[in-house]
Amino acid sequence: MKNYFTKKSLFVVTMLWICFCTMPNFAACSEKYYINNKWVLLYKVINWWYDSLPEESHLLCGDHIECRSEGNIQIVYDAIEMKIRLSTKENFADLLSVFKQCEQCWGPSYLTSTWLNEKYFGGGKYVTSRDKCTTLNSYLFGKIERINAIRIKNIENDIGLELEGSILGLMDGKIALHQSGTLLKTCQMDKNKGGYPPISLKIVNYKSGEILANFSMAFDGKKHNQANASDAKKHSAD
């Protein structure tokens, strides 16, 4: 009964945040966060989680979270190299920790393309970046014909980003979609599901509703369970 009312109270507070965010002063916000499809002010959710009681800390765990941004894209095309870059004017999804925080540990490391809309990219390819400073603020595509570049450039103001994942913990000022690093609040993961829930990203034409590109997160590093098994085997041999 107590859990029911706690969850009910959280829902009511969330709805108040939604109403607050829909006031005129917030109408110009280009980036919005959603938890279980409810629009929230994520920094308030983060502040609540910081101060939550131990018995309440699990309430957000596993919830679906999404960040959407519209009108935040600028496009540059290099006709000689046949490359087109889509970059955000302002940082995207700053309140989410998407990439792993430790080099050797297992976790989400970089984006890989799962599908490109041929209407816009033709036979082009996404240029995967494995830079240690990978962000969600730049997307480079190669082998892009001029006619396709013009088609993409013409909808520059209509292009947006949608990032989706599951809440797995709280870091310093961010909601974590993984557990690779120092977490202030940690969620229990379901071992039967075989690791992290998927993290995905879409580039969208918000005016037409078309999807331009789909991405998923690539994972790499040293798996903790493999390391533990190795240590156990070593101690057994000793």
User: How does the major sheet shape up?
Assistant: 7 strands, antiparallel
The total beta strand count reads 15
Give the terminus-to-terminus CA distance: 51 Å
Query: What's the arrangement of strands in the largest beta sheet?
Result: 2-1-3-10-14-15-7
Order of helices and strands: HEEHEEEEEHEEHEEEEEEH
Mean pLDDT: 83
Q: Give the DSSP E fraction (strand runs of 2 or more residues).
A: 25-35%
Q: pLDDT below 50 for ≥5 consecutive residues: which ranges? A: 14-28, 225-238
| Helix share bin | 10-25%
Give the count of helical stretches.
5
Radius of gyration (Å):
20 Å
Structural class, please?
A: alpha+beta
| Shape type | globular
Structural notes for this entry:
This protein has 238 residues and is of the alpha+beta class. It contains five helices and 15 strands. The chain has helices spanning 2-21, 42-51, 118-121, 146-153, 224-237; strands at residues 31-35, 38-40, 64-70, 73-78, 83-88, 96-97, 107-116, 125-126, 138-142, 159-166, 169-171, 174-176, 185-186, 200-205, 210-220. The longest helix has 20 residues, at 2-21. It is globular, with a radius of gyration of 20 Å.
List the helices and strands and how they pair.
Layout: H1 2-21, E1 31-35, E2 38-40, H2 42-51, E3 64-70, E4 73-78, E5 83-88, E6 96-97, E7 107-116, H3 118-121, E8 125-126, E9 138-142, H4 146-153, E10 159-166, E11 169-171, E12 174-176, E13 185-186, E14 200-205, E15 210-220, H5 224-237
Parallel strand pairs: 6-12
Antiparallel strand pairs: 1-2, 1-3, 3-10, 4-5, 5-9, 7-15, 8-9, 10-14, 11-12, 11-13, 14-15
